[in-house]
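hey so u asked for the seq, here:
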Amino acid sequence: MSGCPVGGVSHTDGNDDGQSTFLPPGNDSESNIKTFCTLAYQQKTFREVVGNFPSSTILGMKLLIDIGNTCTKLAVGCSGKDGRKGEIVYIERKSECESWASLFTRIGSIYSIDSCAVSCVGHYDASLPDTLRQQSWPFIWLDSDTPCLLRDTPKGYGSDRLADDLGAIVVLQEQMPHVSAEEITRDGLLVIDAGTCITYDFIRNSRVTSGVISPGAQLRLKAMHDHTALLPLINLDSPDFDHLHYNLYGNGDAAHASRQGASHVTPLMGTNTEDCMLSAALHGIRFEIEGYIRALQRQYPRLRVCLTGGNRFEMSPDVASRCLYHPNLVLYGLLSIV
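ran it, structure tokens below
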């Protein structure tokens, strides 16, 4: 069987569906949990990574719920010490077919959850708070009034953006363990989330001072279709769509894309209708992101930049050298408040 992480053991769970459960190497210490989860994350898939740990080793875990515009993610994590970054040990996308009660029962049978944090910017399900109360888990519904690492958060500020900002700070603190949140944001921190919409949050001295909200790639493509008579609808979520090709290598560099395993790349200037639209959406977003970063760097030469979101765009080298990409800023931000 392929795909076994270094130092670990891979086995099938006895089902015929070919799904694998990975067991951690060595003993069940906290350091092994951290090491194993890092290895499992590198598989680039959502999978239950510690389902076979004895329950005694996963006490005091935090349930994290991110209800976005496109999907709902759930994660389980353990808090870090002294306000530092904790660890996410399990992530899944919620199925629309599974109730909250069933989901909590399933997760609670594996992890001893002691608290929960929720960010909701998508469809609000009124049953969720009541179901959480039935579990007897204290929970925090993140909003601008929630005590956190940032001060004076603007009223009405999106909880996903706030979680992104908190996640960026704790991820940067992991790299600079002796630096406070205020020091990290003193020279300017730009947090960019390229999802359904692209959000830009500018933070200085632990305060969100300004920001931008821009349509994401799918919204741009849909707008072109909806407001014209002949332009086709290009669905980035289609199974036929080459995500490796378009999402990761939208910089027009066919040679680089080929080295990374992509068979084709969106040209800078299209030669057919679809490529023209894709170039406008994907290259346009890349130019937009780079433009904001460069403009802010001129004002704040020591600017730090964190990027996240489902649509990852490869930046030019001068911009990329200043950027840190992390796929789960919202989840780490939620983890920082419980």
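Confidence is low (pLDDT under 50) at residues 1-57, 243-252. Residues 273-299 form the longest helix (27 residues).
lmk if thats what u needed
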